[in-house]
Amino acid sequence: MTDIFDFEPRVDDYAVMGNPIKHSKSPQIHSLFAEQTKQLINYTAIQVDTGGFKQAVGNFVANKGKGLNITVPFKEEAWALVDERSERAERAGALNTIKIKDGKLFGDNTDGIGLVNDLKNNHNITIKNKRILLMGAGGASRGVLAPLLSESPKEIVIVNRTASKATILAEHFNDLGCVTACGYDNLAQGVLNGELFDIVINATAASLQGELPPLPDKLVTQQGCCYDMMYGSQTPFMQWGARQTINTITDGLGMLVEQAAESFYIWREVRPDTKPVLELLRKQLVT
């Protein structure tokens, strides 16, 4: 006779959706978080064909899934699909996290807080009263501007090859703090005028193509930080930073782990310890 209390505890389903998705580290990261915090979850990676995102999300909801991470190229489509958004997702115009409850979809964007937490907690970088150069005016920049501005930097300058795009983005966020825009040609004149930056963040796709945006030398203070959102190798931007003899040069692996931790907290209301997970992933990259 089976005891009425003899039952298997429920394992909640989560996933990351994108295209391509095979390279994603999210399943490993969230599995480590779950093991650490004793949470019963199953996390998988789902490749979604172009045009099939809405159907894929609908199928996941129908199968009682509890939450999703969204990556390229579906972040903007996800933003339009959800029933409710956080303020930071609303501002970003894109999201990377969906919480599913009672059939309703709540969307959030944890990229910015992931970047901020990595800078502050893993690299001891103070953002308050610092001059920040943010390279790129696309979705990656949109996702991090509000969280960066909440830390009260002295100024954020958005630089983009098409300066008009940077100007539009700056105007969208300048109610939150001092945000200005320029083209790359303006940076050299700024160096001549002594207008140096404390933090330079590469939010462009240049590193994926092995390219370096046209940055002038002596742009960053020697105590400053060069931060590439890409991860996995010494990118051309990081190599440029090394030639400038800058204090801190890093890739975006910590941002990846920290944004995942914020997603995990939104879903499970438990905050994992990111340091051991980040250390493990870093060892895997260098071996």
Short description:
With 287 residues, this protein is of the alpha/beta class. The chain is built from 11 helices and 12 strands. The chain folds into 2 domains: 129 residues, Rossmann fold, CATH 3.40.50; 140 residues, Rossmann fold (3-Layer(aba) Sandwich).
Task: Describe the overall structure.
It is a single chain. The protein is α/β, with parallel strands linked by helices and 287 residues long. The protein has two domains: 129 residues, 3-Layer(aba) Sandwich (Rossmann fold), CATH 3.40.50.10860; 140 residues, Rossmann fold. Helices cover 40% and strands 22% of the residues. The strands form two sheets. It has a six-stranded mixed beta sheet, with helices on both faces. Strand 5 and strand 6 form a beta hairpin. Helix 1 crosses helix 10, helix 5 packs across helix 6 and helix 5 packs across helix 10. The N and C termini lie far apart (53 Å). The relative contact order is 0.13.
Q: Name the overall outline.
A: globular
Largest sheet: 6 strands, mixed
CATH class of the largest domain: Alpha Beta
Beta-sheet strand percentage?
15-25%
Order of helices and strands: EHEHEHEHEEHEHEHEHEEHEHH
Question: Which topology of the largest domain does CATH recognise?
Answer: Rossmann fold
Per CATH, the architecture of the largest domain is 3-Layer(aba) Sandwich
Q: What's the name of the CATH homologous superfamily of the largest domain?
A: NAD(P)-binding Rossmann-like Domain
How many strands?
12
